Q: What sequence folds into this?
């Protein structure tokens, strides 16, 4: 099983790269952001609760997000693998993920960290705001999401570094070029079991 995490700040292109990875490696896509937006569109109790946080640029609490992981992932345990996109975002979520997969002896293979400069992230979020139709792609909320990323999600880099699983990819290049770098890291891992630390 190939279990990937695409890790990066809002606007780093995680969603786009995940879609490409799903096609190339036949993986199951797990995007908590998309799952939560679906709940909001259906106006479910989870959606109503999640919307309060998402619209403010805050993280949805772990006790809402983690059960979503368990439910969805346990349905696809026979698949060739997963791409986790936007999950985990806190240490508690990362521990829950490890617990779930280690128990089944299918640990996380690689954590692809897409690195993009902060002002570029902000420009991208603002640039897509008209088309995305996302209520959280507005000026102040975007800034808040970037702050929350630094405070709550960035510590995961050390968490996965300690496990020797991080590959840092320069995400400032065009989409296809970034995808080439990510594929190179994955193919190297599949062929040699080696994890490249940095790809510029
Ligand atoms: P982005 O990476 O651009 O912020 P996402 O679709 O991944 O886009 O997430 C959108 C919002 O959904 C986040 O700002 C957060 O409020 C909520 N969310 C998504 N994933 C998680 C998660 N794993 N834990 C908590 N909240 C989440």
A:
């Amino acid at each position: 099983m190939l279990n990937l995490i695409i890790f990066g700040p809002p606007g780093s292109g995680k969603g786009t790269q995940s879609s490409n990875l799903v096609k190339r490696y036949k993986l199951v896509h797990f995007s908590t952001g998309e799952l939560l937006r679906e709940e909001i569109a259906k106006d479910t109790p989870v959606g109503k609760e999640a919307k309060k946080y998402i619209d403010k640029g805050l993280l949805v609490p772990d006790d809402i997000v983690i059960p979503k992981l368990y439910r969805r992932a346990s349905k696809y345990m026979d698949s060739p693998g997963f791409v986790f996109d936007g999950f985990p975002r806190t240490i508690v979520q990362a521990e829950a993920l490890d617990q779930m997969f280690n128990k089944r002896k299918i640990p996380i293979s690689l954590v692809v960290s897409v690195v993009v400069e902060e002002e570029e992230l902000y420009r991208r979020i603002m640039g897509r705001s008209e088309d995305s139709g996302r209520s959280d792609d507005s000026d102040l909320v975007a800034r808040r999401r970037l702050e929350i990323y630094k405070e709550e999600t960035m510590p995961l880099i050390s968490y996965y570094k300690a496990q020797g699983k991080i590959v840092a990819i320069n995400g400032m290049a065009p989409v296809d070029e970034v995808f080439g770098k990510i594929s190179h890291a994955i193919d190297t891992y599949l062929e040699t079991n080696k994890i490249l630390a940095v790809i510029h």
Observations:
- The chain is about 60% helix and 15% strand.
- The pocket of adenosine-5'-diphosphate is lined by residues 10-11, 14, 32-33, 36, 53-54, 57-60, 65, 86-87, 89, 93, 136, 145 (CB under 6 Å).
- The chain has one domain: 2-191.
